[in-house]
Amino acid sequence: MKLFDTHCHLMDRRFEEDLEEVLARARAAGVTRIVVPAVDLDTSHQVIRIAEAHDGVYAAVGIHPEAAGEVPDGAYGEIERMAAHPKVVAIGEIGLDYYWDSAPRPVQQQVMAAQVEIAKRAGLPIIVHNRESTEDVLDLLARLRPGDAAGGVMHCFNEREDVMQRAVDLGMYISFAGPVTYKKSDDLRAVAARVPEDRLLIETDSPYLSPHPFRGKRNEPARVALVAEVLASARGVTMDEIARVTWENGHRLFRKVEA
Predict the structure, then answer these.
(1) 147-168, pLDDT tens digit by residue?
(2) Domains contained in the chain, CATH given
(3) Where does the pLDDT of residue 138 fall: very low under 50, low under 70, confident under 90, or very high at 90 and above?
(4) Residue 64: what are its φ and ψ, rounded to 5°?
(5) pLDDT tens profile 68-116
(6) 155 annotated ligand-binding residue
(7) How much is the average pLDDT of 8-19?
(8) Residue 85 assigned to a binding site
(9) What residue ranges in the chain does DSSP mark as E strands?
(10) Known binder of ligand: residue 7?
(11) What is the pTM of this model?
(12) Was 9 annotated as part of a binding site?
């Protein structure tokens, strides 16, 4: 059984001391493909270095909405150049975050839009962060239509079924992380059961959002297996089936990832 963690922040300082051990545990759990999204220009360089150093690990480059207020001069050109790297498979993590509101909302929207256009020119999918900004995220996706180009994924999905369906209709994939395993997440599991099979992905968002029964502890990619197990139960299929489907979907979306 092969598993694909489509969102894991291995450049986070919490992995500085034991990254090799973390990756060894991932491989032992069957996790042989990992996408590591950046959050700003500096981490975009970091994730490329990590991807270059490890088989099965790939990078996404971009500016997170929490960093949208401090985009350096020339950043977009640099991101577009990095997008040509053979191990850069997406533009991300990009999006909108109205919970932290670290940058004015129009600025966040402009930064996201600029990076969607980079993704379209580069022929890469986008990785979308959405926190308390659903309508504006969907409106921007509907206007810029990245789903008509290389597509994208709504990462760490935690929304209603109608939002899921609107995102799918816009050409997006839907990825679930640790929250789908939490005891009070019955509504989210019901949504997960309704995602079209060809749009379903799994992730850890490590080091954040560790799944049950490790909630509150540092997350790591090996635990994507726990997300897969819960999705299998919610959808009434086997773990092997969820692994197969999400593996195939991950490779379909992130086309530069080696099969």
Answers:
(1) 999 999 999 999 999 999 999 9
(2) 3-253 (3.20.20.140)
(3) very high
(4) -70, 150
(5) 999 999 999 999 999 999 999 999 999 999 999 899 999 999 999 999 9
(6) yes
(7) 97
(8) no
(9) 3-5, 31-37, 57-61, 88-97, 126-131, 152-154, 172-176, 200-202
(10) yes
(11) 0.97
(12) yes
